[in-house]
Amino acid sequence: DHRDLHSFPTRRSSDLGQEHKVLNNVIQRISRIKAALPELTELESLLEEGKQYMRIRVPAHIQHQGEHLPFYVLEMGSNSPNAPVLSLVGGVHGVERIGTQVILAFMKSLIRRLHWDPVVRDQLENIRLLIIPLVNPGGMLDNSRCNPSGIDLMRNAPVEAEGKTPWLVGGQRISSSLPWYRGAAGQPMQPESQALSDAVHHALKGQKFCISLDCHSGFGTRDRMWFPYAKSTAPWPDIGAAHVLTELFEHSFPHHDQYLFEPQAHSYTTNGDLWDYLYDDYKAQQPDGCFIPMTLEMGSWLWVKKNPRHLFRYHGLFNPVLPHRHQRILRRHLVLFDFLMAATRTMPDWAPATANEKGLALEAALGRWYPGYDGKLTSIV
């Protein structure tokens, strides 16, 4: 182009100054997010490292003080409609960062083993792995349990408990200024809750065998593996299959006994539990399918007991603070993740299928978790 350069309009210095100011503001916002949300930075680094193995979607962006934080949904492994599904979820409660961090630690190990380990490659080729590692990025950025609208996502589903729940803890509609706020009655689910529900519903649609693990922290001095229902003290329909899975783990790893497997309602009941909602949705669509949703509730009270300095930081009530303890937590659950991969792949072999198998599994589950239960078994078979 030989046109006279002087014919182009020139930009005033004030315009350039304004552009530099805007650019600096953007850079500062990005730097602030990276500093306050290193989990998102690590996740995006892993996405780049393992992109050849992943199908990556961002079905939603979460609004937070003018920012649009990505809601990542990742899939790995088989696309077959018959492949069993394992879902791994973290970061539902923003302050419980360790839940997201243990999933990221597993992802890093999985991606790097896929480069050289044919056993892992073969295992992954026979299941569909759904990973949603950071459900509540706005809450995590704020170091808050709730989302940026002040709503507890694990009390936000349209599910009502069948009996009385603990005051506040079971979910309340009084005010977002109080913890465990469910949101106003009759309102749609929050964007984070809806995006999670849509992703799980899509992945489980048409699948006969499914397991999920949602990683949390902050209750008790032991790591608990909770089954549904949170809404009811009565046994839930797949309690028999959950018992078989529990025995598989305990028999295979007899010295890895830090987990207490039990229904959540043995500790407390709640309204609005997302996994109650997703389980009921699954069974309504696929009554003959088997879906075992579990919650890993890491016992952060033990961390507080060992180091009372945790009491002086809200973050410390839910996350290990000392570096050596943090590293220990990141590695201690890798055995569990590997087990769930193998258990998902072989689920068609061990999940109770015939009426006799279901009856025996149910009887064993009731004997372990509901001794003396005299409810109508036909209602939960």
Give the low-confidence spans.
Answer: 1-8, 377-381
* Rg of Cα set: 23 Å
Q: Gap between N and C termini, in Å? A: 78 Å
Mean pLDDT equals 91
Strand order of the largest sheet: 1-2-4-3-5-8-6-7
Structural class: alpha/beta
Q: How many separate helices?
A: 13
Shape: globular
Strand content: 15-25%
Order of helices and strands: HHEEEHHEHHEEHEHEHHHHH
Q: Which features characterize this protein?
A:
13 helices, disordered C terminus, alpha/beta, 381 residues, 41% helix, single chain
In short:
With 381 residues, the protein is of the alpha/beta class.
Structure commentary:
The chain has helices spanning 13-36, 38-49, 97-114, 118-125, 137-141, 191-204, 239-252, 274-285, 300-306, 323-332, 334-345, 347-350, 355-369, and strands at 54-64, 67-77, 85-90, 128-132, 209-217, 223-227, 259-263, 290-298. The chain is of the alpha/beta class and 381 residues long. The longest helix has 24 residues, at 13-36. α7 crosses α13 (355-369). The chain is globular. Mean pLDDT is 91; it is low at 1-8 and 377-381. The protein is built from 13 helices and eight strands. Helices cover 41% and strands 16% of the residues.
Which helices and strands occur, and which strands form pairs?
Blueprint: H1 13-36, H2 38-49, E1 54-64, E2 67-77, E3 85-90, H3 97-114, H4 118-125, E4 128-132, H5 137-141, H6 191-204, E5 209-217, E6 223-227, H7 239-252, E7 259-263, H8 274-285, E8 290-298, H9 300-306, H10 323-332, H11 334-345, H12 347-350, H13 355-369
Parallel strand pairs: 3-4, 3-5, 5-8, 6-7
Antiparallel strand pairs: 1-2, 2-4, 6-8
Helix pairs in contact: 1-2, 2-3, 3-10, 6-8, 7-13
